[in-house]
Structures are given as structure tokens and as C-alpha cells.
Amino acid sequence: MNDLTWMKLAADEAIRAMPYQTFENPRVGAVIVKDGQVITTGYHEKFGEAHAEINAFNRVKNKTEFLGATLYVTLEPCSTQGKVGSCAVQIQNWGLKRVVVGSIDPNPSTNGKGIKMLRSAGITVDVLNTVENKEINPAFHYFYTTRLPYVQLKLAMSQNGFVAEKFGKRKKLTDELADTDVHRERATRSAIMIGSETMITDQPMLTVRHINISHKQPLRVVIDRRGRLQNTNFDFSNNWLIYTENVLFSKQHSYVKLMSGALKDILIDLAKQNIQSVMVEGGPSLIHSFLKENLWQEMLIYTTDKVLSKDSLKGISVSQKPKNEVQVGNAVKKVYINHQGGTQ
Ligand code: AOF
Ligand code: ZN
Prior knowledge:
Layout: H1 3-14, H2 19-22, E1 29-34, E2 37-43, H3 52-58, E3 70-75, H4 87-91, E4 98-103, H5 113-120, E5 124-127, H6 132-136, H7 138-146, E6 150-157, E7 162-164, H8 176-186, E8 191-195, H9 196-202, E9 219-223, E10 240-244, H10 247-252, E11 256-258, H11 263-272, E12 277-280, H12 284-292, E13 298-304, E14 313-314, E15 324-328, E16 331-337
Parallel strand pairs: 3-4, 4-5, 6-12, 6-13, 8-9, 8-12, 9-10, 10-11
Antiparallel strand pairs: 1-2, 1-3, 7-14, 13-16, 15-16
Bound molecules: ligand AOF and zinc ion.
Keywords: Hydrolase, Metal-binding, Multifunctional enzyme, NADP, Oxidoreductase, Riboflavin biosynthesis, Zinc
Cofactor: Zn(2+)
Protein name: Riboflavin biosynthesis protein RibD
């Protein structure tokens, strides 16, 4: 076994948590090795609770086992007190010989400081710079390296590629199981965004309902450039944010922000509010804008078994190959990654 194989084990630990359980913290895993044997493992299980390294440490009663051992951890141990105390401070007292780090923590509160602290305490620290953190925590990684929210586009389509019939009430495309999957995705996003057209025709709640979460609901964001929503009687008072270019609208309401409708500016504004990631749920014209401006990192397309008439509203056709494809309920879910997206 070499460093990379032990780190792979630590990454397997990290993904034992569901992304929404540690949200908005990253998923992190740790393995402690001595004489070629694993002494203990641990992972960050829940936001606000113990970090990976500490969970691994706590599982061993006889603390002398750690003397001369090596800790493999997917993310640099944190340097600050935070909610649970600094890992870099605690680790110094375990008698470890070496710490191997997968990635440097891009969060400015640590960002290299954890490694420095361990080295000053006489512990050998090696950084592998592997992709684990980026792959396991794409939004966390993206947000802290670019200072823009990670944009995930999401669209549900009929089997024949349409999103909705042009007239009348919207037909529901996804079934209960597919909805649960969407809600699991929503649960790892800081904000959900839609366009005014979708607000008017669908009146979606944009909340996480099918699964239990202990963190706050995502911020609900509507892009309403022309101020079409100003004379409607939607209640936007609780956890909504409307971006508009319409002066009249913004004067009346506290939940409205007057801005240029440029998507990049809106993303910058959301980042200032610590929005790590946004799920854009439609409609197709808003999604097209994100695609056209290359301001997206990931796209989910749920192609359901429902069929819509040929004069319906067209969905999105993608030429690129999906990263993966799974059946969820009545839908085939395809996940696309934008490798040249924005400022990756
Ligand atoms: C670690 N080990 O397992 C994790 C780390 O909110 P707190 O106090 O729990 O701290 C969260 C920050 O700590 C988070 O933003 C990230 O920078 C780091 N996560 N660090 O040493 C862990 N989950
Ligand atoms: Zn920590």
C-alpha cells in the first residue's frame, strides 16, 4: 500500500456521509495507519459535529497506538477554532509522525495554516494534491477557489424532449421517486433559482420536502428582469430574493434587489451573501442563458416516461456525453459536467 492507496481509503470514508448531511461543510475522511495496518478510520458525519480526524481518533481507546503513526486525511486539518475546535491543534498531541493531506483547504479560514501549524510542531506533512476534495465536494471547492457560486442547472423533460405544453396547466413529468432525487439535490444547494415565467406558470415552492434536513431551506431566487411579478399576489416575504431591473418594483419591496440583469453580476452578488451553490430549475430560457454565457458547472437532465404533444415547449438537447446516467423513478437522470465552465 502506498500513500495514494491509503488516501483512496480516506476518500471512501468521506463519502459515507450524504452531501446534504455535512452541508455546507465539505465531506472529509480520515484513516490512521501504523506499520502498514489501519488503526482507525473516521469521517465528518454531520454539519456542526466532530471533524473526520477527531472521529477517527475517538474510536481508539488506547491512545498510545497513535505514537509514530501516519494520518491520511482528504482535506487539510482546520486551523481555526470553528464550531468544534481546531483539528491542527488537537492532532499535535497525538504523537503522530506524519500527516498526509489530500488537498489544501481552499477555505480562507484554514488555507495552508493547518499544515504550517503541524509542521511547526515537528510533524512531517506531505500534500498529495489529489482530486478527492474537488470531486467529493465540487461546490465547496469551486466556491472557495473562484468566489462564485457553483451553478447546477436542472431540467425535467418528456420522453420526446419537451418541458411543458404551451397552453393550460402544467403536466407533472416526474414521479414521486424522481422528485425525491431532485429534493436530495436541492438539499445540497444554498439557493434555488428560477425565471419569472416559471414562477407565474408553475408557482413552485422551491423547498426541500421529500427528505429531512436539519439545515435551513435554500434561498429562493427569482430573476424577473422586467418586473412582471410586481402586480401579482405571491407572498415573497419568507426567504425569497427577486432580482429585477425594474425601479418601481424595487422601491416597493424589501425582498427585491435592483440590479443589471446580467447573470454574472447576479452570481457575484449571491457569492457576497455566501451562497456557495445555486440550482437553476428553469425555465428553459434561463437555462439557455446560463449555457450560452458558459456560467454553469453541472447540469442534471431528468428525461421522464411522459410524452408531450409536438407543439410543446422545447427542452435542451446536449451533444456532450453525460458523466453518469441513472434511473430514478420514472426518469433517466443524466449528469453533465462543464469542464471549461466559467472560471474553473
Ligand atoms: C477538517 N476536518 O472533517 C472537515 C473540515 O463549521 P466547522 O467548525 O465544522 O468548520 C468547517 C470548516 O472546516 C469547513 O468550512 C472546512 O474548511 C473545514 N472542514 N476540516 O479538518 C473535517 N469537515
Ligand atoms: Zn477540523
